[in-house]
Structure formats: C-alpha cells, structure tokens
C-alpha cells in the first residue's frame, strides 16, 4: 500500500485578503498546526507531512485506530497548551527524534488529528467528487472512541461572522472552500485562506548581506532593544534599495553576514503572532513608519 500513499499530494490554499459570505462556499476555522495526510491501509496507520515526509513515529497516540476499511484523511495535527491550540507545541512534537522523548510527549502533550477532508474510503478514490459530497462521507467515518481524532466544524454562508469570532478568540484565521471543488492535490483558488493578522511596529536595525531579509527589534520598557527576527517578504524593489542605501550611509557595524545600523527607522509589519520567546512569526513588511 505504500505506493498508493505517495500519490496523495495535499491540496493547498491561496491567500485571500478579506472574509466574505457566499453560499457557494463552506467556511472552516484555520487550525494553527501542521498539515498532515493520515492513511489507514490493512489496519496500519501512517502519517505524512505536506511535503511527503513520514512522521508516523512522532505521534504514537494517533496509531490506535481500528477502522475496518481503508481510509485516507487530510487534516491538521495540533496540540493544546493551556486551553489553546499552540503552534510551538506541535512543532516540538514534530521535531522530536528520541523515542523516549516521543513517548513522554505523547502522554504529556498529546496531538490531535483534525480531519477536514477524506480522499479514500472503502477502496474508492474520492478526490474527483465535489467537496460537499466528500464532507458527507467524512461524517460517516466513525470517530467514536478515538480521543485524538476529530473533524473540523464547517459553516455555510457565514464567513464574516466566523472570522469575527476567530478574531475574538485569537485563532489563526478561516478557510473558504468551494462546495463543488474536486481535490486537485495542488494549490488552487478553489480553497482560500484568510489570516487573522496581528499588526505591529518594529525598528529596522540592519540587513542580511545575502538578501535574506531585514533585521528587526523592539524597544523595551528599560530602554534596551531586543532582536525580534528577520522580515523577508512584502518589500518592493524600490523599498529594498532605499533601505539598503540608507544602511550603507548610516553604517554602525558589520560582520560576514550582516550590516547593522542604529534603531532609528521603524516599519509596520503583519505577523501570525508573537512566539513565546518574543520573536515575530512569519513577518511581512507593510511600509516604513513616518513620524
């Protein structure tokens, strides 16, 4: 069956700026975990990342399935920390290699597979079916008794209301999917993600010499500055040239990798969230801040 699993490439989403209502779509919360394809063939469960990497051993708590039929699910693996889905926690699970540590985390920081699509069931490839029909089949797959496997809630024609709710709850965003979309196994405008961005202002304090981004920092209450990561995306070529020319004219110091300047220029960026150690997560440049 391993040759079959290789063919299940995930269908990816395109970015969309604003929430909307449309009765041709279903809407789902966007789970802040990592994408996974779960296959169950011949009573054996395997789990693959969106890139096709086999991560089955990382999640022993997801192996306890007794489905009698072959099943392939698309979904998100997530971890709950202090009552909220936490991206850093699931990344810890994904990157853990030690078997002993995996077993400890499986008990103390269990992962949940949240299914939002079904690609194969009872010896049939379902990817050519409309999404709404696949959703109906997914609802027939019994999840009872499997504490670590569930299905995503979906809403019809309520994209704006759902987005307002996830903003209140500080959830990552929502997903909009055409009801009649087949499962293409590639990026498609039939599936859209609308991110609940956090906006913040940072100081720009240098750049990477190999064009890998701009260094950022924030000013702490004690007057000191703390590095907050690198912003790589969102700048135009003109903005890049302006900033790098400014850095060269106002050089503070440099090393083999970076050019550094004093924290005088500020920028507005949007991020998924702040990490637990105070770094920007997936920052995107919006514009320079002019006093």
Automatic annotation (TrEMBL):
Keywords: Ligase. Residues 104-194 form the ATP-dependent DNA ligase family profile domain. Pfam families: DNA_ligase_A_M (PF01068). GO terms for biological process: DNA recombination; DNA repair. The keyword Cell division does not apply. InterPro entries: ATP-dep_DNA_ligase, DNA_ligase_ATP-dep_cent, NA-bd_OB-fold. Belongs to the ATP-dependent DNA ligase family. This is ATP-dependent DNA ligase. It comes from Paenibacillus agilis.
């Amino acid at each position: 069956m391993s040759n079959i699993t290789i063919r299940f490439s995930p269908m990816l989403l395109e970015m969309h700026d604003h929430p909307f209502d449309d009765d041709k779509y279903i809407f789902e919360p966007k789970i802040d975990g990592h994408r996974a394809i779960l296959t169950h063939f011949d009573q054996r469960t395997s789990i693959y990342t969106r890139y096709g990497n086999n991560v089955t051993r990382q999640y022993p708590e997801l192996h306890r399935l007794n489905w009698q039929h072959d099943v392939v699910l698309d979904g998100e693996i997530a971890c709950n920390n202090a009552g909220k889905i936490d991206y850093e926690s699931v990344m810890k699970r994904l990157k853990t290699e030690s078997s002993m540590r995996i077993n400890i985390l499986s008990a103390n920081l269990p992962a949940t597979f949240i299914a939002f699509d079904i690609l194969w069931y009872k010896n049939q490839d379902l990817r050519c079916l409309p999404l709404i029909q696949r959703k109906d089949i997914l609802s027939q797959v019994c999840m009872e008794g499997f504490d670590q496997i569930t299905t995503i809630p979906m809403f019809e024609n309520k994209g704006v209301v759902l987005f307002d709710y996830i903003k209140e709850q500080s959830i990552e965003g929502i997903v909009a999917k055409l009801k009649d979309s087949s499962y293409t196994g590639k990026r498609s405008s039939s599936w859209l993600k609308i991110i609940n961005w956090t906006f913040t202002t940072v100081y720009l304090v240098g750049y990477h010499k190999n064009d890998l981004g701009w260094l950022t920092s924030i000013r702490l209450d004690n007057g000191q500055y703390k590095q907050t990561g690198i912003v790589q995306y969102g700048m135009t070529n003109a903005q890049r040239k302006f900033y790098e020319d400014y850095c060269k004219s106002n050089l503070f110091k440099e090393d083999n990798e970076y050019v550094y300047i004093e924290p005088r220029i500020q920028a507005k960026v949007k991020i998924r969230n702040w990490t637990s150690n105070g770094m920007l997560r997936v920052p995107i440049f919006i514009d320079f801040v002019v006093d």
